[in-house]
Give the backbone structure.
Amino acid sequence: MTDTPTVLKKIIARKHQEIAMRSSRDSVAALNARIQGLDSSQNPRGFVAAMQAKLDAGLSAVIAEAKKASPSKGVIRENFIPADIAKSYQQGGAACLSVLTDADFFQGHEDYLLQARAACSMPVIRKDFLVDEYQITEARSIGADCVLLIVAALNKTQLTDLNQQALELGMDVLVEVHDARELEVAMDLPNKLIGINNRNLHTFEVSLQNTIDLLPRIAEDSSERIVVTESAIALPADVQLMREHQVNAFLVGETFMRCEQPGDKLAELFF
């Protein structure tokens, strides 16, 4: 984490403050009790399995994101109703749903995940900056089926420990990388999902070339992985470029969020 971008350092510092506040209000024991009390409808839905099912059917596996705002773009969607967004995405053919729960930088909330998941049958990933075991337990307590772990935000021990904890709680894990060094770390984990973020965290510029450049490093292990390209998907040409490189799993948010019916845009772009 010596080369951690400034914005990420700021977010991580805020996360530790947030964890301290939350844990004083809801202890780990209370969260675990909540997990034990979840009904069958909140059992993990199988995030990886849903992605694989789409791919096996010869379709794109799209993780469609419900995102109200971002640090670089500000408010993206004013009329933000998570349940309606989830229904639209499901009708549009998404494999899975991603919901931002970070409040300070993305105007997200845990309730958004609860509302979205209740409105659809898709597995849902908690999209946040997870740096502590408390957050992993919290994710399962709100019904998350999968969590995001960002290699740039964690040292190797943290990454391994949080990954193992999530798996033990029955969740899948999407491990996100930005460059070759991070990918090398991620490849040491047994995870099926490897997310390649096409956004440079130092400049905020996006380029699909990042995914293309990193693919050869996964080639020998490609049968054991699902590569998810993240960010920079806006046009049919972007989707076609990824398909030409045998990448058929996508995480897309902003492109959909700017449309009145995000699921219609999803169907137009991918199907």
Summary: The chain has a mean pLDDT of 95. The radius of gyration is 17 Å. Residues 6-25 form the longest helix (20 residues). The first strand starts at residue 61 and ends at 66.
